[in-house]
Amino acid sequence: MDKEYELDLFLQTLINGILIGGILICLTIGFQLTFGVLHVIDFAVGGWTMLGGYTAYWLVTLAGIEPFISIFLVFALFLLIGRGLGPLIYRVRTSRYARPDLMALAFTFGIFLFMRGGALWLWSYNSRSVESVLSGQFLSLGPVTVPLLRLSAFIMAVLFSLGLFILLYRSRFGMAVRALAQNRDHAGLMGVDVKRISAWVYGIYTGLTASAGVLIATIYSVNPTVGIRYTLFAFFVAVLAGLGSVGGVLVAGLALGLLESYVATYIGARYSLLIVFGTLYLALLVAPKGVLGRGI
Amino acid sequence: MASKPFQNRKFIIGALLISAIGVVLAVLPAVIDPYTLRIATGALMWAGLACAWNIVGGYAGYISFGHSAFFGIGAYTTAILMQSDFGASFFVTLIPAIILSMAVAVAIGGPTMRLRGAYFAIATWAFAEMLLQLVTVLDFTGGTAGLSLPAYLNEFFFYYIMLIAAAVSFAGTWMLIEHSRFGFRIKALRDDEPAAESLGIRTNLVKVQAFAISAAITALFGCIYAYWTTYIDPHSVMGPQITDQMVVMVLLGGLGTVWGPALGAVLLWITNRYIWSTFGDTVIYLPILGVIIALVVLFLPNGLISLLIGRQRGKELISSILGKL
Hints:
heterodimer; A: mainly alpha; two-stranded antiparallel sheet; 11 helices; 2 strands; globular; B: mainly alpha; two-stranded antiparallel ribbon; 15 helices
């Protein structure tokens, strides 16, 4: 292997990692928002991803809608689904049970089982991938080739994350959300409709996560069992970023994308999950409160 | 209560009830057909597994999502040692399986149990997934293709072995938690860990002990299951559905109660077999589990056991078990 080729491979892996990282950011940013506001760790995060992917698959095969357009439909649809489910999550989290945090965890675990099992029942184990007009097209940038599909997915992920930041820091709604994350009781006293805002936060989160699922379905494929992997990926990014930290996700998502990409290239794709989950476990032991700080 | 457990009225009633159930279960194979016998064997397995999970999840208050790892360790140890290269007999394989699972439990339990609540749940889940991936890429575990064990087609043997293992799991929990000093230590740390620490209880040691006992029992069932089904692959013995079922069964029955886990396990297992015989498949069982757990959390957070002993008492029981927020 000559030196030039080695450098090219290194750069190519870097680009791949950054592009995957963008999608992981989109996947985890809503999850972090939910933790920050509702203090719920949602086990169903990978389930929303999977359902988003399947919805895109349906929209493409049944209605012929291009994935990069259908992503907005998926976002809107899951925004409403999450908004509908939000009050239930809120009710469990603020209940007078002995340990409402564990009960909320169990509740979302139940939702996840329902989604995973329901998907298995409906679609069996078959994988589906979503075709886009951009599939199989490349952009050559010197030594590296950038698949247009991944580049567009990355751009979409960045746009969604940017939209969330604008919503959080430049709107009255965002101010209410941040107030809620600071102190639920005080926000309520100041006239914030805590229950309604919480439900919308859950809706935004499900919308974002399902949109990430559309991007994943166009690049890889979806099957009913991928939910587990993406739940753990979201946990990974969240733990690395510090649970509830929206800003830290930007760095942590890229870090996981790069880790997966380099492991797949230099060690072997079949070891990538092993190393990713192993690193997650170690990260939890070393710094359970997050490497990059916390807070919204 | 601690000083004279055998004069305790509750203990005597419990012991009588357990013996009566034991006698019924011991003569059961004589009166049922082979198909029902298989279902009963499975019910015993899940009841025992639920009790084992309950030691950590219910009594110590640490919700583990990683117990499939121990089930898998047991199953793989038995499978590898019973293969032609070694040709060990079944009972011999139990010893290394239990030692290995306890060693792993101590090794990961120590650091992991410093985490609380959801962090602990995530960490154990990550560990179980990591082990699943490891088994999939290794050679001596057969990779994704799995392993075959020598077949021993005696349903009565497996029924009685499961019965003994379930009895160990159930009676072990009952004696250990409800009627021993160890039980008081566990309850003390669950209710208020810093206070327990200040009273001189070495909470880390107690937690790891509980985790190791729970892991050993889980692995024991893994061994028996592997021999019973004669074929294992990574997803059948280490997949998330093993842990999923244990968690849902305990939550349905009643977290941290003696009878709850067994009750939940038997009910859900019968539901599983009924669905299998009706639809020819158990895929629809998973979404049903999901709905059950969501409904239990919403409407019956203290489990089915609270219906039997009264909702208020059940609520107090679970509250005392899970501690204050």
